[in-house]
Amino acid sequence: xxxxxxxxxxxxxxxxxxxxxxxxxxxxxxxxxxxxxxxxxxxxxxxxxxxxxxxxxxxxxxxxxxxxxxxxxxxxxxxxxxxxxxxxxxxxxxxxxxxxxxxxxxxxxxxxxxxxxxxxxxxxxxxxxxxxxxxxxxxxxxxxxxxxxxxxxxxxxxxxxxxxxxxxxxxxxxxxxxxxxx
Length: 182
Fold this sequence. Notes:
This protein is α/β, with parallel strands linked by helices. The chain is built from three helices and seven strands.
């Protein structure tokens, strides 16, 4: 009969096991870090899901969400082309080529509202009177009106009929302000 005696050194096994686990964790951390930074670099090349040459249409349902997102993250939306309908609204300190393309946002159940909108610039702004409904297409630029402000530089403007759904509602809490998505 042949008997083989194996002596197991518990301290050595623990050291090898512990070293292997630490190396595995370090490898995972390095791989994840590389993927995160590569993903960030690739996302900055094309941070917009909407191609820059495409015109995004604002609707009654997404109007205030887009308005809030653009005001909160102006730099992310510079160069985006948008199209929407509203009425011409002027306040005293606007320049001659500026107006707010406005909509009335309902803020209470008894139909109290506030005026909301994008500051717009165009050469023939004075041709459109206050409360005239227009449809515009333009590009978002960064301007200054009592601080940094998104301004829509109008490329096309035409009179429009007052829409059936002229009121908009406050931004909902489900929107995610990501650049370029409207």
